[in-house]
Amino acid sequence: MDNLVIARTEATPEIYFDYPTGVLALRGESYPENASDFYTPVFKWLRSFLASDHLDEIVANIEILYFNSSTSKVLMNLFDLLDVASTQGKRVIVNWIYDVENESALEYGEEFKEDIKFVEFNLVEK
Amino acid sequence: MEMNHFFDYQETVSDNGIFLTFSGLFTQEFIIKLGDALRSKLSIFSVDRSLELKVFSLVVEQSQNIIFYSAEKSVQISEQHQNMGVGTITVGFKDNHFFVFCGNRITNQKVDKLRQNLTLLQKMNKDELKEHYKAQRRITPDAESRGAGLGFIEMARKVSQTIEFDFFKLDEYYSYFSIKAVI
Question: In the CATH scheme, what is the homologous superfamily, with its name and number, of domain B3-182?
C-alpha cells in the first residue's frame, strides 16, 4: 500500500498516513463544506490498512486547532472504526494533541474519549 | 440605495458595534475569505485564543448553514457552483460581548421543526446540551450531518446568553429566519 498524503489547505488539515509505521497524522483546521466527502479517502485507506496483516498497531496523532460540526461527526465515525479494530486484535492509540490556550480543545478531546471504549485515547498537551 | 440612506447605513452599523457584515451570496470559498477577515478584525481586540475560536466557529457554522439551508439561490451562478445560498451575517462587539447575527430565507414548511429544535436548545442547561450534542453526533446519518443538526447545538454550547431566533413570514412560500448568538 502507498502512504496517504493530502496537503493542507485553509479549511482542511494535512493528512499523512505512513504505511510502514502505521502512524496517521492529522494537522491543521477542518471546516470543509462537506466533511464526509473530504474524509472518504481516509476511511478507505484505513479500512484497507486494518484489513491487512501488515501491522498490529496503529497510532493516530490528531492535532486540529478548529473543526466544524460536520467534521466532529466524521471524527466520531473515525474513532468508532478504530474502536472496533481494537476489539479485533489491533492495538490502537489515539493521541489528541491540544493547545492549552484553547480551552475547548481539551474539552472536545475529553468528549470523544468518553464516547469510545477500547482505544487507548491520550490527551496530550502541545 | 439613495445617497442619504448610505449614511444611515453606516450609522446603524457603527451604533450597533458591528465590525464585519456581509449580505449576499455565500460559497465555501467565500466563507474561507470571510474567516480570514474575521481573524484579522479580532486581532484588533487582542482576544485570547479560546474566544477567537468561539467567534470564528459561530461565523463558520452560521455561514455554512446559509449555504445548506437558505431557500434563496442566485440565478446568475453556473451549475458548477450549486452549493451556495443567499443570506446575511453580522459580527459585532457591544456591551462587552461579541455577537453573531445571521439571517436567510427558508421555506415555510421548515419553520415548525426548526422552531421546535431551537426552543428545545434554549431550555437546556450546559450538561444537557453536552449530552444532546453527543447523542446527535452518533445518530445523525452522514447524509444529513451537513450542519444544522449539530451546528445549532454547537452554537448553543458556545453562547453566554440564550440564543435568540425569529421567523418572519414573507409570503405563502417563504419566511425569513434570523438567529442571534452572544458570546
Answer: Histidine kinase-like ATPase, C-terminal domain (3.30.565.10)
Q: Compute φ and ψ for B80, nearest 5 degrees.
A: -65, -25
Q: Which domain holds residue A29?
A: 4-125
Question: Tens place of pLDDT for every residue, chain A, 126 residues?
Answer: 899 999 999 999 999 999 999 999 999 999 998 899 999 999 999 999 999 888 899 999 999 999 999 999 999 999 999 999 999 989 999 999 999 988 889 999 999 999 999 899 999 999
Average predicted confidence (pLDDT) for chain B: 90
Q: Would you call A55 an interface residue with chain B, using a CB distance cutoff of 8 Å? A: no
**CA of A52 to nearest chain B CA: how many angstroms apart?**
26
**Domain with A48 in it: what CATH number?**
3.30.750.24
The more confidently predicted of residues B73 and A24 is: A24
CB contact under 8 A, A68 and B53: no
How many Å apart are CA A80 and CA A75, to the nearest integer? 8
Dihedral, A70, A75, A78, A82 alpha carbons, nearest 10:
-160
**Separation of first and last alpha carbons in chain A:** 31
DSSP string, B82-134: -S-EEEEEEEEEETTEEEEEEEEEEEGGGHHHHHHHHHHHHH--HHHHHHHHH
In chain B, where are the structural domains located? 3-182
- Asked if A125 reaches chain B (Cβ–Cβ under 8 Å), the answer is no
What domain count does chain A have?
1
| Residue located via cell numbers 414573507 | B170
